[in-house]
Specification:
A middle domain of Talin 1, 2 strands, two-stranded antiparallel ribbon
Length: 305
């Protein structure tokens, strides 16, 4: 049991650090190719924080554990809003004066609603996955077109790509793959030992572990008083978890939906998504942060009851 827990922790460390290496080195290569920081932000960085969820869900689906694959996404989205944003607000009031997040929040809420409708079909088929990916790609293209009206997308090439950058991309990719395998295998072993369903393991252990990048980024942004980054990180990550992670995973393998996830966990995810859209236009106080964290704790208690 102790060895399994250690392996689980090592798996999450590989996932998180592998994602860091992959995002940082890919961003560096993109800059040296003359690609603007905006494009890097809406592609490499935005997807990078959700790499742990993507790798974990895809590996779980490959093993046939679709409850973990779907539960990981739903659980991560719940944790991102209730735990990550709540904990950030507890540390410091989040002043949300920025008005640039409307598109992100519309995408967050829209993707959550579309996801719920798809889940009601009982199985996430591969054509649903294609639809989700098309929505994400279309949104990204829209961002680029909007940005291009007032900015340049390319800057002059200045530097040559170093071998070190390529090596770090390879190391980061391997770290994510190895971390996903270690984390999911260990989580399944823990579920077996304690007779816990894969649904609960996916919604809790796996979801919390894969939400570590979002937690780190949002806490750091809050301390630096950058509310747009803190909230935008959560909104963007949650949207990609649905459109990108579920989209890609369901293309590889159809995902049968556990009725408990549909009727209990997904409504909570939807409720929190609506709540985030409602509260973002005003300051998120410590009291509201406490409410969010309390919701998450209550959710965990109800899960195990």
């Amino acid at each position: 049991m102790i060895l399994t827990l250690i392996t689980l922790i090592i798996g999450f460390l590989f996932l998180v650090k592998g994602s860091d290496f992959l995002v940082d080195s890919s961003s560096e290569i993109a800059r040296k190719l003359g690609i603007s920081e905006f494009i890097i932000g809406v592609t490499i960085v935005a997807i990078g924080t959700s790499l742990p969820e993507l790798a974990s869900s895809m590996y779980a689906a490959f093993l046939g554990d679709t409850d973990i694959a779907v539960g990981n996404v739903v659980g991560s989205n719940i944790a991102n809003i209730a735990l990550v944003l709540g904990a950030s607000a507890l540390i410091m009031k989040i002043r949300t004066k920025e008005k640039i997040l409307t598109d992100d929040l519309v995408l967050l809420l829209g993707s959550a609603i579309i996801f719920t409708i798809i889940l009601m079909h009982g199985t996430v088929k591969n054509y649903f996955g294609v639809l989700l990916l098309i929505i994400y790609v279309a949104y990204t293209i829209k961002l680029i077109i909007d940005y291009r009206r007032n900015h340049r997308l390319l800057r002059p090439k200045k530097d040559k790509i170093k071998i070190k950058d390529i090596i770090l991309v390879i190391i980061g990719s391997l770290g994510v793959v190895i971390g996903a395998r270690l984390a999911i295998d260990s989580a399944i072993n823990i579920a077996t030992i304690f007779n816990i369903t894969n649904r609960i393991i996916g919604l809790t252990l796996v979801a919390l572990g894969t939400s570590l990048p979002e937690l780190a980024i949002s806490l750091n942004a809050t301390l630096k008083k950058k509310a747009a980054i803190a909230i935008g990180n959560i909104a963007g990550s949650n949207a990609f978890n649905i459109l990108g992670v579920i989209g890609l995973t369901s293309i590889i393998k159809d995902l049968p939906v556990n009725p408990l996830i549909l009727h209990f966990d997904v409504p909570i995810m939807l409720l929190l998504s609506f709540l985030l859209v409602f509260i973002w236009e005003k300051d998120i106080t410590r009291f509201e942060g406490l409410v969010l964290v309390s919701i998450y704790i209550a959710y965990l208690i109800m899960l195990f009851i």
